[in-house]
Amino acid sequence: MAGLPGAARARSASPGSPPALDGSFFLSPLGGLMCAQAVLGLLVWSLIAATTYHLHAAYGWVMFVSLFFWILTLLFFVIYLLQLHQKFYMIPWPLVLLIYNAVATVLYITAFVTCAAAVQPTSWRQWDYNRRAAASFFACVIMITYGVSTFFSFRAWKGLGSNAATSQVSDHA
């Protein structure tokens, strides 16, 4: 679990102890990226929700992707903030985060392209145009943040920077 916050404290957390707040999680790359993804995801789906998205099928897809990954990001954020990932040590969390971030990156690519292609600059409702264009921009930015998270998740999964075999043994011994 190299590269993940709280990896050094994983030896001291027992499955029966109550969840504890990990303040250092906010300062970690994973915590900072999850905070950015939560804020950007909220911006994307709220900007789309403020338009007449139900009239355009393309925006339904953008709404689904942004809302789905916003909820999952908040769920993972709470899991890591409360150190619940240490309670469920049998789950390969670095691999779970790698798959989650990779899927989020790919689906946000489709959402960004869909949203950007559906923006009509000659819309009769100017405020819808502005919100949809802003949602396209923030979808692009969040796509990049999920890509960066995928990179860090891959490094944590591979155990780059430490010996993955010994960290697995020492974390649960």
UniProtKB/TrEMBL annotation:
<comment type="similarity">
    <text>Belongs to the MAL family.</text>
</comment>
<dbReference type="GO" id="GO:0019911">
    <property type="term" value="F:structural constituent of myelin sheath"/>
</dbReference>
<dbReference type="GO" id="GO:0016324">
    <property type="term" value="C:apical plasma membrane"/>
</dbReference>
<protein>
    <recommendedName>
        <fullName>Plasmolipin</fullName>
    </recommendedName>
</protein>
<keyword id="KW-0472">Membrane</keyword>
<dbReference type="GO" id="GO:0042552">
    <property type="term" value="P:myelination"/>
</dbReference>
<keyword id="KW-1003">Cell membrane</keyword>
<feature type="transmembrane region" description="Helical">
    <location>
        <begin position="133"/>
        <end position="154"/>
    </location>
</feature>
<dbReference type="GO" id="GO:0043209">
    <property type="term" value="C:myelin sheath"/>
</dbReference>
<comment type="subunit">
    <text>Forms oligomers.</text>
</comment>
<feature type="domain" description="MARVEL">
    <location>
        <begin position="25"/>
        <end position="158"/>
    </location>
</feature>
<keyword id="KW-0812">Transmembrane</keyword>
<dbReference type="InterPro" id="IPR050578">
    <property type="entry name" value="MARVEL-CKLF_proteins"/>
</dbReference>
<dbReference type="Pfam" id="PF01284">
    <property type="entry name" value="MARVEL"/>
</dbReference>
<keyword id="KW-1133">Transmembrane helix</keyword>
<feature type="transmembrane region" description="Helical">
    <location>
        <begin position="95"/>
        <end position="121"/>
    </location>
</feature>
<feature type="transmembrane region" description="Helical">
    <location>
        <begin position="60"/>
        <end position="83"/>
    </location>
</feature>
<dbReference type="InterPro" id="IPR008253">
    <property type="entry name" value="Marvel"/>
</dbReference>
<dbReference type="InterPro" id="IPR013295">
    <property type="entry name" value="MAL"/>
</dbReference>
<feature type="transmembrane region" description="Helical">
    <location>
        <begin position="25"/>
        <end position="48"/>
    </location>
</feature>
